[in-house]
TrEMBL record, chains A, B:
Protein name, entry field: Winged helix-turn-helix transcriptional regulator
A GO term for molecular function: DNA-binding transcription factor activity
Domain of life: Bacteria
PANTHER family: TRANSCRIPTIONAL REGULATOR, MARR FAMILY, TRANSCRIPTIONAL REGULATORY PROTEIN
Ranges for domain HTH marR-type: 6-138
Gene Ontology biological process terms from the UniProt entry: response to stress
DNA sequence: GGGATTTATTTCGCACGCGAACTATCTATG
DNA sequence: CATAGATAGTTCGCGTGCGAAATAAATCCC
């Protein structure tokens, strides 16, 4: 029984996430590229020149979140903001050479993280975990849907 | 077998955590008690008068984390800081009546969250998830152990 | 065409939690 | 006893991301 085990899921999720973030932050070989920042680097690695809103959607960030992330990464010279030629409101994001290099380094770190995230679990178990995490997205939606 | 699915675990964990936090924050019936704050309320509900460091350990927070949390909750009149009679450096934390009431309300919200966290998954699957989350704690330790 | 509405992004204030450095107290050791 | 070291908390600056409100450009509709 122990309702306590279930009670703990909220907490366990929180702790696991923070531990992972902290671990990644501490192991940033290249100058200060954080986990969130590598996320954006990967998005741009696949689709350079996306709109900020698209990048935000890909990372599940709202407007203020992506805006701040872009600010910091622009200041760090990892990406560039260039006006969209067709839409005066929009900005497109482009990797700088430094950003491209940082992305390559981030991939190595990600490989290490992946090993740690799956080690000791069967593929079926990892599938359960992934399915659970994905399900939580629809279970705790952004809007205030019931 | 898509290495991409594994790649996503970092991201999925991050998103699930943020979605849950956001959802809880939006559904705070009582004045502004956040998820982190309910965590401390529950700790005090079980052991009123703990040292700040003990509370931090229970919530996996470092000194600055628990210190700030206590600051905000003290300002909100949810808890009280009282000097430890035996140790001039230490402070013990106590629930205020308002804090005790907020804790009761938080429990209702937690029940709702728990339902959403487990609904649609078998007990065995939830066990896998819980085991995975716990394992991640040792996999991404606080110290810089390799 | 022009006013209302939608859309892209920014700004503000906030909560959270980290690492590093600091202060104050307690404890151990010579 | 004095002093060195350990321990409890605080403070600072930072990155992250949210909600709400503002700005500016695009679009829709009469």
């Amino acid at each position: 029984m122990s309702p306590r085990r279930e009670h703990r899921l909220v907490f366990l999720l929180n702790v696991a996430q923070r531990r992972l973030q902290r671990w990644m932050a501490a192991r940033t070989p290249h100058s200060g590229v954080t986990a969130a920042q590598s996320g954006l680097l990967f998005v741009l690695g696949q689709r350079d020149g996306v709109l900020m809103g698209e990048a935000g959607a890909a990372l599940d960030l709202g407007p203020p979140g992506i805006s701040g992330l872009v600010d910091r990464m622009t200041a760090a010279n990892l990406i560039e903001r260039r006006a969209d030629p067709d839409d005066g409101r929009a900005w497109r994001l482009w990797l700088t050479p430094a950003g491209r290099a940082a992305m390559a380094l981030s991939k190595a770190r990600l490989a290490d993280v992946n090993a740690r995230l799956t080690q000791g679990f069967t593929e079926a178990e990892i599938d359960v975990v992934a399915r659970w995490l994905v399900t939580m997205q629809s279970r705790f939606p952004k809007g205030e849907d019931e």
